[in-house]
Write a structure and sequence with these properties.
The chain is an alpha/beta fold. It contains 15 helices and 7 strands. α2 runs antiparallel to α7 and α4 crosses α12. The structure holds guanosine-5'-diphosphate and magnesium ion. Magnesium ion binds next to α4.
Length: about 300
């Protein structure tokens, strides 16, 4: 299968090759790892921006406008939209298509939607791999759009250089954002739908919480940017805040450190996936099935069954 994807064509930015390559790794075809290994030396140049937040916050609208902004600076933009809440590939993507319509016909923009089939973990791996393909194909900016539910926003922080958390005035105050774990992952916040009432108060409450965090003159201070994505208002501010963050990462040495941490986590994930696949052979799966009734009736415990499976 790999021989049907011409690596040289892919590296030159050929769209058909990119689309095929992403499908190839997404379907976990045999040879996907060798293929990704061949691409790997050509990756690492693209800047990766994660855009996360609750459903309906305006992430797709904003992603579309941000892509347009970067296009106006002659940068090539890859967009990877991940919607783990969508059980099928139809509905959600149609809506995103409409909101992405301004850049869809642009040769310098490549949009790929990835739906979760099964585990979120597997999806985050494939999302990174798709980003690597776009990176190798010469895209300068990669925008990940993910719905901030459950684990997914944490996954995106592990794949992006800059993570942007999009909230709306209705999202609640800073305390709620803190509870949802968004404070830890946000390099900065976007208060979208600022045309709606309550935007200023919502911004203030997040700024207040951010101000309480320990910091000194060298550390990064996350800020809040106000936008009305549907009108294209504030998009420049998102871009300039991203640049400011990028400069901070480079200056402080955090850029390399962050990427090193992400790589480490990535390798750990590859290894644990492999162990899991190897471990659950037919024999062990059958044994587990056989032991279940004994565990249910309390004649055995989950712990000794696990122990026995490990020794098998
Ligand atoms: N009033 C208002 N509506 C917006 C704004 N940005 C996006 N929307 C609308 O909010 C809805 C959800 O937007 P979408 O980009 O699909 O949100 P996503 O689910 O976060 O990707 C759409 O109807 C948008 O047109 C904004 O700044 N103000
Ligand atoms: Mg969306």
């Amino acid at each position: 299968m790999t021989n049907t994807i011409d690596i040289q064509k892919l590296l030159s930015g050929d769209r058909r090759s990119i689309a095929r390559a992403i499908s190839f790794v997404e379907n976990e075809n045999a040879g996907a790892e060798q293929f990704l290994s061949a691409l790997y030396p050509h990756t690492g140049k693209a800047y990766r921006i994660g855009i996360t937040g609750p459903p309906g916050a305006g992430k797709s609208t904003l992603t579309n406008k941000l892509a347009k902004h970067y296009r106006s600076q002659s940068m090539k933009v890859g967009i990877i939209a991940v919607d783990p809440t969508s059980p099928f590939t139809g509905g959600a993507l149609l809506g995103d298509r409409v909101r992405m319509s301004e850049v869809e016909m642009d040769e310098g923009v490549f949009i790929r939607s990835m739906a979760s089939r099964g585990s979120l973990g597997g999806l985050s791996k494939k999302t990174r791999e798709a980003a690597d393909i776009l990176d190798a194909a010469g895209f300068n900016i990669i925008l990940f759009e993910t719905v901030g539910v459950g684990q997914s926003e944490l996954d995106i922080a592990g794949a992006a250089d800059t993570t942007v958390v999009v909230l709306v005035p209705e999202s609640g105050d800073g305390i709620q954002a803190m509870k949802a774990g968004l404070m830890e992952i946000a390099d900065f916040f976007v208060m979208n739908k600022s045309d709606r009432p309550g935007a200023d108060q919502a911004v203030m409450s997040i700024k207040m919480i951010l101000g309480f965090r320990a910091h000194d003159e060298h550390s990064w201070m996350a800020d809040v940017v106000k936008t009305t994505a549907s009108e294209g208002i504030g998009i420049d501010s998102i871009a300039s805040e991203t640049t400011r963050h990028r400069e901070y990462l480079t200056r402080s040495g955090e850029f390399e450190k962050r990427r090193a941490r992400q790589l480490k986590a990535r390798i750990e994930e590859i290894i644990s996936d492999k162990f899991t696949v190897t471990f659950w052979n037919t024999e062990r799966k059958q044994k587990l099935e056989l032991e279940l009734s004994g565990i249910l009736t309390r004649s055995r415990t989950p712990y000794d069954v696990a122990e026995e499976l490990l020794k098998k």
